[in-house]
Design brief:
single chain, 113 residues, mainly alpha, 2 domains, elongated
Length: 113
């Protein structure tokens, strides 16, 4: 189900800024603020990081591989948001993995450090 709201340009820019600071899509940020939940996306990030931690150093992977058949059960927006969050985590100083390249399908690949 979809709902639209009217915002001034200033309101929209502030909402966008707050969502980006939280590393979330706007819709996800609104749901979090309204309902106290963001569709368990933080849990998915934690699960992804656990799966990465189990890999051997030097292993190349993408997020879809880590989830196997469960990947297609996730909503498209959830998959995209998860990808952005994992990319963000890979750029932290203590990251145990780093991005390598994108393939012809624009899938981001990583390597475990």
């Amino acid at each position: 189900m979809e709902t639209t709201i009217d915002l001034s340009e200033k309101e929209y820019e502030e909402l966008k800024r707050l969502a980006e600071l939280s590393n979330m899509e706007i819709a996800e940020y609104i749901k979090l603020k309204l309902f106290g939940s963001s569709d368990n996306k933080e849990k998915l990030v934690a699960q992804t990081l656990e799966k990465i931690d189990e890999l051997s150093a030097g292993t190349k992977f993408n997020i879809r591989q880590l989830f196997g058949t469960e990947w297609n059960k996730l909503a498209r927006g959830t998959r995209l948001s998860l990808g952005k969050r994992i990319m963000s985590k890979s750029q932290e100083n203590n990251a145990i993995f780093k991005p390598t390249e994108k393939d012809s399908q624009h899938t981001q690949w990583y390597v475990k450090i």
